[in-house]
Every structure is written in structure tokens, then in C-alpha cells.
Amino acid sequence: MEGWKKWYIVIAVVFIVTAIAGKIIHTQAPDAGLAEVDQLEDLLSLPVELEYALGDNGSKGVVVKDLTQNQENYIRQAEEADIIVLAESTGKLQFTTGTYGQEIRVSSVIKGSEWIDQNEKCWVWRNYGMEVMDGKIVYRNVLNLMQTGSYLVFLKRNQLNEYRSEKEFQTASEYFGYLQIPESKAQPIKQSQRNALYKEWSELSIFTASEEIADAWNQIAEILIQKFAKIEG
């Protein structure tokens, strides 16, 4: 019995030491602050590193060719979205591992009134958002977060919404899921902006590595805005 008592004591001591060490590590570990971010304004003063821009890693020519030669396909993909709305971004954010959500209030339903109503709030989700990696906040998408203001938004329907108190949708296009209204022309991101305070590159709609890529993206965005956003005058 004495031997068992000693083992219990040893196990208890190891447990206590482990708990204390874990607490110290947690206390001393760098806090990137993302856990506290649930509003766009909370993010503006935080350092954020951009992981990737369209055209990085020697792919500029490939991306320009894709956006120009497949222009009609990108337009058709947006046109065929289940839901097309004009909406106001509220600035509310949610981050999970590998995804991010943004709240919008629908101003006008252009397509998909069976899935969403005018003046209704919902969440727009995308993959590869903002994550803490090696103690740093890293943005992992080429399409920037919606800023506070008006957007033309293309969404996929979600039949599970009938079981939810808050509706959730995914964007129907990787590069053109939402477009700022009035149109915000894409510009290449500067090297100095890639690892800076978020507010220094928050106004960029999409992250591109060259003027040619930005121009090709702008052409598609302008066609979609002229077709759908101008309906409202």
C-alpha cells in the first residue's frame, strides 16, 4: 500500500507541476489579439501579414491569362449565383479555424427572394480567412474583408437556414463574391503593405501583384456592377 501511496503522490505532483507550467506558458505566450476581434474597427490597429496575392510566386502571366481568357466564365459564375443582393456590411466579424464570417444587412434582393428578404441580416462565410500562425495574424485570402458600406453580393443558397435563427451563406465566387459599391478599383498591393497594420491595406478590394492583374479583375467587376448594381439606379 505504501508503494501505491507514493505513486499517487508522484502523479499528483506531476499534474500540479504540469498545470502550473501550462499556465506560465499561456501567460507568457504572445497574444495576437484575434480572439478579441468581432468588429472591423477592432482589426484596424492590429498588425496583419498577407499570405498571398494574385500573381505571387511567378504566376502573374498565368493569372492575367486566366482572368482575360475566362472572363465570360467568371461573369457567368456570378450571374448564376442562387442569391444576388445589394447589402450593407455591418462590420461584424467571426473567425474560426479556416473560415471567416461577415454580417450584412440586405438593402435589395436582385435574385433569390425565396432565400433572403429585404432588410434581413445574415452572415456571409468564406474559406481561408484570418488566422493566428506562429504568433502572428495572417490573412489567407485574396479577396479582402468587406469594409463598412455597400456591396453587391453573390451567394449560394443554404437549405439549412430554415433550422437556424441567423441565416448563413457562402459566396458564389472566389474572386468576385462581393463587390464594393460605388466601385472600388483594384490596385496592386505594395510590398511594404504586406506586413503592416491592417488599416494600411484595408481599402484594397482584392490583393493583386501587378497592374495587369488588377486591370483584368477590374474589367470583370465593372461588368457585374453595371449589370446588377445599376438596376437600383
Written overview of the protein:
Keywords: Membrane, Transmembrane, Transmembrane helix. By secondary structure, the chain is α+β, with helices and mostly antiparallel strands. It has 2 domains: 1-30; 32-232, OB fold (Dihydrolipoamide Acetyltransferase, E2P) (Beta Barrel), CATH 2.40.50. It is built from 5 helices and 10 strands. It has helices at residues 2-28, 40-43, 60-69, 71-79, 211-228; strands at 47-50, 83-96, 99-111, 121-127, 130-133, 136-139, 149-156, 167-171, 178-181, 195-197. The strands form 2 sheets. A 5-stranded mixed beta barrel has the order 2-3-4-8-7. It has a 4-stranded mixed beta sheet with strand order 5-6-1-10, with no helix packed on it. Helix 3 (60-69) packs parallel to helix 5 and helix 4 (71-79) packs parallel to helix 5. The model is unreliable at 10-31 (pLDDT under 50).
At a glance:
The chain has helices at 2-28, 40-43, 60-69, 71-79, 211-228; strands at residues 47-50, 83-96, 99-111, 121-127, 130-133, 136-139, 149-156, 167-171, 178-181, 195-197.
Any descriptors?
single chain, 233 residues, alpha+beta, OB fold (Dihydrolipoamide Acetyltransferase, E2P), 2 domains, four-stranded mixed beta sheet, 28% strand, globular
Layout of secondary structure:
Elements lengths: L1 H27 L11 H4 L3 E4 L9 H10 L1 H9 L3 E14 L2 E13 L9 E7 L2 E4 L2 E4 L9 E8 L10 E5 L6 E4 L13 E3 L13 H18 L5
Parallel strand pairs: 1-6, 4-8
Antiparallel strand pairs: 1-10, 2-3, 2-7, 3-4, 5-6, 7-8, 7-9
